Amino acid sequence: MVCALGAAVCFGTASVLQAMAARAAEPGTGSGVDAALLLRAARQWRYVVGLGLDAAGFVLQIVALRNIPIYTVGAALAASLAVTAVVSARLLHVPLSGAEWGAVGTVCAGLAMLALSSGEEGSGTGSFALKLGLLGVAGLVLLVGAVAGGLPDRSRALVLGLASGTGFGVVEVAVRLIDDVSLATLANPALYALLLGGGAGFLLLTSALQRGSVTVATAGMVLGETIGPAAVGVAWLGDSTREGLTWLAVLGFAVAVAGALALARFGEPPAAPRPGDPDPAGA
């Protein structure tokens, strides 16, 4: 659980830096899959530091997924929005209202309930059909992103957000379907699902941060990366709760995700500064 929360801190802080860098980058093709956008954003130090935090968060996420149920890790990762809100208030001088501080507290309460009620990770390893299906979902995420550029602004943001969240959800499940790292792993479709899903999710999220309503996109991402993976973990991988505390786990999951959705606006980076304005990040 400590690793899951550490991953949330890394991802939440990285999103502030990456959102600023993505908005400052030159506009691209308008497609949800614009690989050149990553190269343009990577020219800025904020984006590079954000990538480093993402890498650290991913390592912590893997450790968490190998020890506690997917639904607990997913809710903890959704809590990265609470981290983003607090970091934005501190570094970018984006004030939190009383209701938003309440949402931060709600996220923390939900995570506390999950920590008390979650059991050990399930012992299921997943069938070969599940692994192939996961790879298919990862490919579908990339396809959806490719056509999302032609949608109206609000619809595009929601589709990109859901698709990117689904890609990150594929990563969560794929980590559980890879038993070890060896030559045999190269024949495991879950490995390629992890790489494709993670890459597609990251690419689509970067596009969402630059175009359209990022608040809507962030809410879609939270839903995409929590509900589906949690269901797969319970239904196919044997994730469970402590005896008699299933109700508390369900309540904690719902409370944590609801609190994160209430903070979705903090996926929206601040407006680009006008010439002569001071840089709030001290660049």
Automatic annotation (TrEMBL):
Classification via Gene3D superfamilies: 1.10.3730.20
Highest taxon of the lineage: Bacteria
Record has Oxidoreductase as a keyword: no
Signal peptide per UniProt: 1-21
Annotated SUPFAM superfamilies: Multidrug resistance efflux transporter EmrE (SSF103481)
Annotated transmembrane regions: 45-63, 70-92, 98-116, 128-151, 157-178, 190-209, 215-238, 245-266
Record-given protein name: Integral membrane protein
Matching PANTHER family: CONSERVED INTEGRAL MEMBRANE ALANINE VALINE AND LEUCINE RICH PROTEIN-RELATED
Keywords linked to the UniProt accession: Membrane, Signal, Transmembrane, Transmembrane helix
